[in-house]
Amino acid sequence: MKAYFTSIKFIVMLSMITSFSFGTDQLDEVIAEEEGNIAYRNSIDFDTRTTKIWWDSAWHNKWQWLKSYDDSGFLTESEFYKFRDEEWLVRANISYTNNDNGAPTSSIKQVYWDGSWYNRSLHEYDYNDGGDLTQKTRLKWHGDSWHNRSQTELQYEGGLCVNNTYYRWEDSTWTNRYLQEFSYNDSDERDVKVGYKWTDSDWTERHKTEYSYDDNGDLSQKMFYKW
């Protein structure tokens, strides 16, 4: 085994928001990100995020995400637009069906092309009685119907996920591909993650990550091993 990472302190980054509901309070902030000579600015509020790109000494509209919610405040739809020829043009849409707790039971992605909507992918979600996600199935549209592509199953102990298994749909059955196992310390913080790959007829260990925490419960060290 070879250790790739030693003593990594948290670097807090705000990632791009995809399908999260921000609740009832509006989020009004501007995020500036730079990569090389390109600068992006994200303007975010409750139901809209707009990305602008710095070019030729000025900010220009680039992308926009619009979110819709039901009367309970649950996310029901997310639309993606691209700015072109001085107008916002719709490019994709994700619609959500939620359970009584607001967790999605299904989501359908469609793309807009040449004046029509086309199905691309479907995700279906199952939960246990505690509201934990236990299964996620991905299907892809082909011809005129949905076809299985991949599936993830998650198992829990004491409300903590202890493993997840990833399958691919092959020869009309779900086939093992990857497995991750998790363990936790007395404070319910993850301290070990082990990854396996299915080879021949058994799981083969491929990598392991060990986590250490300081007295405040903050991550202080992360060790990665690969075989």
Task: Give a brief rundown of this model.
This protein is mainly beta.
Q: Can you give a write-up of this model?
A:
By secondary structure, the protein is mainly β. It has a domain at about 1-125: Lipocalin. The protein is built from no helices and 16 strands. A 16-stranded antiparallel beta sheet has the order 1-16-15-14-13-12-11-10-9-8-7-6-5-4-3-2, with no helix packed on it. About 5% of the residues are buried.
Helix/strand order = EEEEEEEEEEEEEEEE
Shape: globular
Strand order in space, largest sheet: 1-16-15-14-13-12-11-10-9-8-7-6-5-4-3-2
Radius of gyration computed on alpha carbons? 21 Å
Which structural class should the secondary elements be placed in?
Answer: mainly beta
**Mean pLDDT, rounded to whole units?**
86
Per CATH, the architecture of one domain is: Beta Barrel
Task: Look at the structure and give the CATH class of one domain.
Answer: Mainly Beta
Unreliable segments (pLDDT under 50, ≥5 consecutive)?
Answer: 1-36
Give me the number of helical elements. 0
List how many beta strands DSSP finds: 16
**Largest sheet report:** 16 strands, antiparallel
